[in-house]
Amino acid sequence: MTIAAKSIVDSYSKLFEGLDSFTKLELIERLSKSLRKETNSKDKDFFKSFGSFPDDRAAEEIIEDIKASRNFREKDLSLHTIN
Questions:
Q1: What is the pLDDT of residues 33-76, one digit of tens each?
Q2: How far is the C-alpha of 1 from the C-alpha of 10, rounded, in Å?
Q3: How many whole angstroms separate alpha carbon 9 and alpha carbon 15?
Q4: Which of 17, 30, 67, 83 is the most exposed place for a label (fewest CB within 10 A)?
Q5: Residue 68 has what DSSP assignment?
Q6: In this structure, are residues 27 and 16 in contact, taking their beta carbons and an 8 Å threshold?
Q7: Which helix (H) or strand (E) holds 69?
Q8: HEC states along 3-60?
Q9: ∠ CA(65), CA(70), CA(73), 5° rounding?
Q10: Per-residue confidence band for 82, with pLDDT thresholds at 50, 70 and 90
Q11: Are 55 and 62 within 8 A, CB to CB?
């Protein structure tokens, strides 16, 4: 834990001392939920980075479509001489 994080925790701890038990339990519950959401979202983001896009075609068909959609242009390189 960094010095800044420790300072923040200490400040919140002092703030929470004046709260009643019910409010403290509510805070604990909300913090717990936020930790679960954070973990789930990190896991989902990680696993979303893998895999495929939804398509029912075979890989060969997709490759053919990609190659067929390529457009090449002729460029006269003699116009671009270096002096």
A1: 888 876 666 777 777 777 767 788 888 999 999 999 998 888 77
A2: 12
A3: 10
A4: 83
A5: H
A6: yes
A7: helix 59-69
A8: HHHHHHHHHHHHHHCCCCHHHHHHHHHHHHHHHHHHHHHHHHHHHHCCCCCCCCCCHH
A9: 160
A10: low
A11: yes
In the DSSP assignment, the letter for residue 81 is -
Q: What is the dihedral of CA 58, 60, 64, 67, to 10 degrees?
A: 120
Q: What is the pTM of this model?
A: 0.40
Radius of gyration of the chain (CA): 29
- What residues contact residue 65 under an 8 Å CB cut-off, 6+ apart? 57
